[in-house]
Write a structure and sequence with these properties.
With 526 residues, this protein is α/β, with parallel strands linked by helices. The chain contains 18 helices and twelve strands. The strands form two sheets. Strands 1-2-3-5-4-6-7-10-11-12 form a ten-stranded mixed beta sheet, with helices on both faces. A two-stranded antiparallel ribbon has the order 8-9.
């Protein structure tokens, strides 16, 4: 989920800096870091345009924790302290997802959305993870086209896909090779523990979304005695990192698509896509076939069937997918767009917002660094990617070939350490919507199962990526608030029913949330 596309918006609001230099392979500081756990943050007001209570500091952390006296990286942190010391419980670290999402501004955003009875118990701590934003950011020097990994499998284009994957890996190695092997989840978890230590906290509380759930899970296994109240919202399954997490987008898009066809068929009088689920499905696949045979022009783009299939995330929101398909059908037939649909909105749905992305590849560079560097399970042979893409295109026609096609990790250097086993007890709370396009229910259930001792709160009927603080009507909020306020997990897993009206919203890609974290609207990240 790329947070970087919202950087201009946040900068305009005074929430983050507008420019950050990017780190090359030779620019890691050589300052000794043996005393990194004893350093004291030099807190200062982040900006005169921001509240005085919002403070920033920069820490030094080891590039390689096995060599604490070696090169260091800058780690940008922020905080807003509890206004009620009598009720303060401790420090809560925040992560928005990614990998590659900046989180320095999160104390402002979370603090504004969190209920008072929870907010006053914590100092809210934000940070840009290593390699991201203001924390010694890396770059691979990728073009906009090279950042796009939504690549459908076709026999005639597979060779160019292999070239793309190899080029991305080579450029990352060239631009950030000295730093790249250490931009991993395990090292970010170590950075989290450095933050805990320099803040003088015995334990750390945490709120992490999407990729942040895996980061929190890793911390709970590496530092179990320092894990306090952890909320892991919209879960990444540790058994699927990371190729399997991309492939689950394809497997779970199929039941979401079937649910959409039922929804649209029930409203055939309004949308005219078919009066049975099969008829609606036939209408969609006829549209895809027609666009493949003769791509149509729309807003300066050539729209083919692959581009239409790449909108798979929208089908988790039937009330939004249906008008989109109606509009695409009209555009393919040279007809005016239906009332209420704008060309700008339809283009954004087709591109996943990519047309609005800034040129910086920092988020993409960190995404691949983590996805490829966390685990050595990526296939090394191009033939396996081709076989899997062919097979999964047949099994999961909406997105299967996109998910299983070759990725830069096929050409990445081997990880410096193994992925974190999930063997230790973790008394944490996991939270999940039933219909989540980025970390689908099966993934959230996998996280809950992996973390022995955890409890799960499932919002049945809940749509969207991100639950707590994203939807004020979510039935999951009460359980999360109670846990954060008291530290007591529910006695057993909780399944609650979301209000039916929530599924009828027709906002863009994902419902608008009061907490303005952008990752739910970007289908290419966690």
């Amino acid at each position: 989920m790329r947070l970087k596309r919202f950087a201009p918006l946040l900068a305009a609001a005074g929430l983050i800096a507008t420019t950050v230099p990017l780190l090359s392979a030779t620019q890691a500081s050589a300052t000794p870091a043996a005393d990194h756990l004893r350093q004291k943050p030099a807190w200062h007001r982040c900006s005169t345009e921001q509240p005085a209570s919002y403070e920033c500091a920069t820490l030094k952390v080891p590039l390689d924790y096995r060599r604490p006296d070696g090169p260091t990286l800058d780690l940008a942190i922020s905080r807003i302290k509890s206004e009620n010391p009598a009720k303060r419980h401790g420090a809560m670290l925040l992560n928005p997802g990614g990998p590659g999402g900046p989180g320095l501004d999160l104390p402002l955003l979370v603090g504004a959305a969190m209920p008072k009875e929870v907010r006053e118990r914590y100092d809210l701590i934000g940070f840009d993870p290593r390699g991201v934003g203001a924390s010694s950011p890396i770059t691979c020097g990728l073009t906009d086209a090279e950042q796009n990994f939504d690549r459908a499998y076709r026999p005639e284009s597979f060779g160019s896909d292999v070239t793309w994957a190899r080029t991305v890996a080579d450029k990352c190695r060239e631009k950030a090779g000295a730093v790249l092997p250490y931009i991993t989840t395990r090292n970010t978890a170590r950075d989290m523990d450095t933050i805990r230590a320099v803040l003088g906290e015995r334990k750390l509380s945490y709120l992490g979304y999407s990729y942040g759930t895996y980061l929190g899970a890793v911390y709970s296994q590496m530092f179990p005695d320092r894990t306090d109240r952890f909320v892991l919202d919209s879960g990444v399954d540790p058994q699927r990192i990371w190729r399997g997490m991309i492939q689950v987008w394809a497997t779970e898009a199929e039941p979401a698509f079937a649910r959409w066809t039922q929804w649209a068929a029930q409203r055939s009088a309004e949308y005219h896509l078919g009066d049975t689920p099969k008829a609606v499905s036939d209408t969609f696949w006829q549209l895809v076939a027609r666009a493949d045979k003769e791509p149509f022009e729309f807003e300066g783009m050539k729209v083919d069937g692959d581009m239409i299939r790449s909108t798979r995330a929208v089908f988790f929101y039937p009330a939004q997918a249906t008008p989109m398909v109606v509009a695409l059908k009209a555009a393919s037939e040279g007809k005016p767009l239906p009332a209420g649909t704008t060309a700008t909105e339809l283009k954004r749905l087709l591109t996943g917002g990519a047309a609005d992305e800034p040129a910086s590849d920092n988020g993409t560079a960190v995404f691949w660094a983590v996805a490829c560097g966390d685990t050595g399970s990526w296939p090394r042979y191009t033939e396996q990617y081709e076989r899997d893409a062919v097979k999964d295109k047949a099994r999961y026609p909406l997105y299967g070939d996109f998910a299983s096609n070759i990725k830069p990790c096929a050409f990445w250097d081997r990880p410096v350490e193994a992925a974190t086993p999930m063997h230790k007890k973790a008394n944490v709370l996991t939270v999940q919507n039933e219909f989540d396009s980025q970390t689908p229910l099966v993934s959230g259930q996998g996280l809950h199962k992996a973390l022995k001792g955890s409890r799960m709160v499932l919002a049945a009927g809940g749509e969207g990526h991100g639950v707590y603080l994203f939807d004020p009507t979510s039935c999951a909020n009460a359980s999360v608030n109670a846990y954060l306020a008291t530290g007591e997990l529910p006695a057993q897993d909780v399944t609650c029913q979301n209000p039916p009206a929530a599924a009828e919203r027709r906002d863009s890609v994902a419902p608008t949330k009061p907490l303005p974290l952008p990752f739910p609207s970007t289908p290419g990240r966690f």
